[in-house]
Design goal:
Blueprint lengths: L7 E4 L4 H9 L6 E4 L9 H11 L3 E4 L13 H22 L2 E7 L22 H16 L2 E7 L2 E2 L6 H11 L3 E4 L3 E2 L2 E2 H16 L9 E4 L6 E2 H14 L11 E4 L19 H7 L6 H15 L3
Parallel strand pairs: 1-2, 1-3, 3-4, 4-5, 5-10, 6-9, 7-12
Antiparallel strand pairs: 8-11
The structure holds NADP nicotinamide-adenine-dinucleotide phosphate (NAP).
The site of NADP nicotinamide-adenine-dinucleotide phosphate has 26 residues, from helix 1 and strand 4.
Length: 305
């Protein structure tokens, strides 16, 4: 990166993450933000045109095919958006000498490891979505542009479709709910990922040889929990905050992932080891409970359910 305030092209501006990136990246440099209408990942010419037209120093891609279960029957579409279009981004970044920031997922792993996954562990996805995301990572590395591939997990925000919002809605509608108790990870807000991305770009900007930091990073909140414990924690906060839930934490019942019928198999261990990111970029990743509290407060104040 050369400019003091590098021009940034954000793709997928309306994703959970894109919404937060619009805020956080605006402090780094001039920002152009596109949605599906202006940069459709199923239209290669349009995608190339947008990048060549704007000539960014950084391309940030928060667009993705994220329908995990539907991907099982839409393999071609998932690979088009998560792999083939990503190759175009990498090729265009390479031609421009730009950086590509791209997001990936714990679903590139099978979840069989007993400890958190490091960036050096080999991907071994269980489902089509995970395969398409792993292929997207590979294609960026094959093209060889300067990149930050940021894997995160259990992403959520007060906007969009995600586990905490689903749990709160169900707890308002029903007097008891069942939640998977044998899958473990670190719930991570889009807010944290967006702010950390901005901090990473800021750090690259200050370096004489930023290309030395090109690579894959794991970015999640600190700590870990199960979906079941996470749901209980959220509903405890919601109850104390006076949200109109019927299912309080005592009315949450554990089930196994095997008994939760879904088209795609999901990894049971979603824990990602974040030390490389923390050491190289000198960022602090707060415990997951810190942002979960903010989430409930934001939902309560703005009545976002
Ligand atoms: N959600 C998670 O739990 C999670 C976990 C780990 C990693 N990630 C990764 O984090 C990133 C952001 O995820 P997210 O949950 O914020 O995403 P999201 O809210 O599901 O949004 C996906 C975005 O991609 C856009 N999109 C889909 N198809 C497109 C196309 N053909 N052309 C252009 N845009 C298209 C959608 O546009 P429309 O608004 O028009 O539909 C939407 O804005 C993704 O790379 C995802 O793989 C997510």
């Amino acid at each position: 990166m050369t400019a003091n305030a590098p021009k940034i092209l954000l793709l997928g501006k309306d994703s959970q993450l894109g919404w937060e990136l619009q805020r956080s990246l605006s402090t780094i440099g001039p920002l152009v933000a596109c949605d599906r209408q202006t940069a459709n990942f199923e239209n290669a010419d349009e995608l190339r045109f947008q990048i060549r037209h704007h000539q960014p120093a950084v391309i940030v891609n928060s667009a993705a095919y994220t329908a995990v279960d539907k991907a099982e029957t839409e393999r071609a579409k998932a690979h088009q958006i998560n792999e083939i279009a990503v190759r175009i981004l990498a090729e265009e970044a390479s031609h421009l000498g730009a950086w590509l920031v791209h997001y990936s997922t714990d679903y590139v792993f099978d979840g069989e490891k007993a400890s958190p996954y490091s960036v050096d562990d080999q991907p071994c996805p269980l489902n089509v979505y995970g395969q398409s995301k792993a292929a997207g990572e590979r294609t960026i590395r094959d093209v060889g542009c300067n990149h930050l591939i940021i894997r995160t997990s259990w992403l959520y925000s007060a906007h969009g479709s995600n586990f905490p919002r689903t749990i709160l809605r169900r707890a308002i509608e029903r007097d008891q709910i069942e939640v998977v108790a044998d899958s473990f990870g670190a719930p991570t807000t889009a807010h944290l990922v967006a702010d950390t991305t901005a901090a990473m770009l800021d750090r690259l900007n200050g370096l004489s040889r930023p290309e030395e930091l090109s690579g894959i990073y794991h970015l999640t909140a600190s700590g870990e929990t199960s979906w079941y414990d996470f749901a209980q924690f959220l509903l405890g906060l919601a109850h104390n905050r006076g949200l109109p839930i019927q299912a309080n934490p005592k009315r949450v019942f554990p089930i196994t992932s095997a008994s939760y019928a879904a088209a795609a198999t999901r990894p049971k261990n979603s824990r990602l080891e974040t030390s490389l990111l923390r050491d190289r970029f000198r960022v602090h990743l707060p415990d997951w409970q810190v942002h979960a509290r903010r989430f409930i407060e934001e939902v309560a104040r703005s009545r976002l359910l």
